[in-house]
Amino acid sequence: MKIYKIKVNGKAYEVEVEAVSESNKKIEVEKKEETKVVSSGAEQVVKAPMAGSILDVKVSVGQSIKVGDTLVILEAMKLENEVKSQVAGVVKEIKVSKGSNVKNGDPIIIVA
To answer: Does residue 107 lie within any of the structural domains?
Structure first.
């Protein structure tokens, strides 16, 4: 176990760090998988990753999209966040419009 001093916003914190497992001098970290897409048969529902306001919708109904394409720009806490597609397909329905407010988990786009 190692002890480090970390400074955040001018305040110093003392933290203890313990390596869980080491293999070939690399520390393995369990990656937490984010779920932004809910599958319902052939359709995929892209949900809002956080509460905020829709600044722009970058896709239109009938448009083909691929993984990594920007779907909407979501403003949360005065920061602009790009909501990217986690699936490939065709935009079937857009549930939001520019200026609308969303809560965490609200459906944004349906992809078929």
So the answer is: yes
Q: Give the gyration radius of the chain's Cα atoms.
A: 19
Read off the tokens for 36: 């932004």
Residue 21 domain-assigned (yes or no) = no
CA distance 91 to 74: 18
Q: Is residue 8 assigned to a domain?
A: no
User: What are 53-82's pLDDT values in tens digits?
Assistant: 999 999 999 999 999 999 999 999 889 999
Q: Which domain holds residue 65?
A: 37-111
pTM across the whole model: 0.62
Distances (CA, A) of 12 to 1, 2, 9, 38: 19, 16, 8, 41
